[in-house]
Amino acid sequence: MSQLESSAPDRRLLGLCLLTLGWSVLVLQAGGFTTSIRAGMAFLDWPLSNGSVNPPGWLTEIDKFAEHSHRLAAAVLGLLCIAIAFAHGFLENRRAIRLAAYALVGLVVLQGMLGGLRVLLDQLNVGGDGNFKAVAFAVGHAVNAQLTLALLAIIALAHTVAWHQAHRTAPRSLFRAGAGAAALTLSVIVIGAVMRQGHFTLWVSSPSDGLFIPSIGTGVVWWVNLLHRGGALLAGAAVLFFAVQLARHGFPLLRWASLVALVFLQVLLGILSIQLPLNPHVRTVHLVVGAALFSSLCAAVILARRSTAQPAA
Predict the structure, then answer these.
(1) pLDDT by residue (tens digit) across 266-284?
(2) How far apart are CA 137 and CA 133, in angstroms?
């Protein structure tokens, strides 16, 4: 192991990353709540809101508050990510981690552009019979948020003791199990984003058919809901299998137990979303916990990759 890889973690960079992670949760919560109450077009312009950073009514009208607070929080997140990039440019010796910090800024810029195009190309602004372009950008905006949070979690992981003390003793199958679980989880996230942004959500299920079989709807809408619910069960099982493998190979309790806890919490929130279709807070928390699960999973997969035994020469 090189001197750079074995050096002690930088607490300054870790603290900045953790601060940004905490703030990103607020941004995600604000964005998820905005979608849950369908307030994404509370303002028809972007990046300003009704031409102002302090538009009238945003502190008293719930739809305007949800959308504008999301925009303000996202702007702060962008500044924090730029600070991460600058700090890594000066303080981080590992080239791969510096590049990851620079890529984080790129994802945040892309996120802002996707959000802006979602507003500017909405049917309310451009007219027409359909709203495919706006929905497509909204789905991209939702998925890219998850990828941004996952990359930020990986950068934070790179400044922890677990990263610097990783030993290459785990089998390659551990990384493959984690990568498969992450791929399945991302596919569920994409389908969920299509549901939420396209308003394809069918929250009603018939008790006789089970919680995960939509009891209303037909065609594509019904299938999208079924794929999301069924895919969530499959992805959850894959994450639990990966967590068990982490435990078997001596990874810290917090690393694998947090994945188990998040899976069960996410399933519970999914069930509550079906049973409480008029409660936007449950669906918003479901989104946030899903992001926490995906980012934690990605960090665990990268750590498993660092712990994978190298093939013999």
Answers:
(1) 999 988 888 887 789 999 9
(2) 6
Unique residue bearing structure tokens 């990039």: 85
Q: Are 178 and 297 in contact (CB under 8 A)?
A: yes
Q: Are 108 and 27 in contact (CB under 8 A)?
A: no
How many CA atoms are closer than 13 Å to the CA of 265, on its beta-carbon side?
A: 16
Q: Map out the domains of the chain as residue ranges.
A: 1-165, 168-313
Write out residues in the chain with pLDDT < 50, as ranges. 1-6, 312-313
Contacts for 74 with CB less than 8 Å, ≥ 6 apart: 27, 31, 111, 112, 115
Residue 285 CB neighbours (<10 A): 20
For the chain, what is the mean pLDDT?
89
308 beta partners:
170
Q: Which two tokens stand for residue 54?
A: 């302090």
Taking residue 310's Cβ as centre, other Cβ atoms within 10 Å add up to: 7
Is residue 74 packed enough to be buried (19+ CB in 10 Å), middle (13-18) or exposed (0-12)? buried
Q: How far apart are CA 122 and CA 125, in angstroms?
A: 5
DSSP string, 152-211: HHHHHHTTSHHHHT--TTB-HHHHHHHHHHHHHHHHHHHHHHHHHHTT-----B-TTT-T
Taking a C-beta distance cutoff of 8 angstroms, is the pair 290, 145 a contact?
A: no
Alpha-carbon distance of 174 to 243, in angstroms, equals: 10
3-state secondary structure of 22: helix
State the CB neighbour count (10 A cutoff) for residue 91: 12
**pTM for the full model?**
0.91
Q: Output the six-digit token pair for 74.
A: 């996202």
Which pLDDT belongs to residue 187? 97
Question: End-to-end alpha-carbon separation of the chain, Å?
Answer: 16
| Residue 21, number of CB atoms within 10 A of its CB | 17
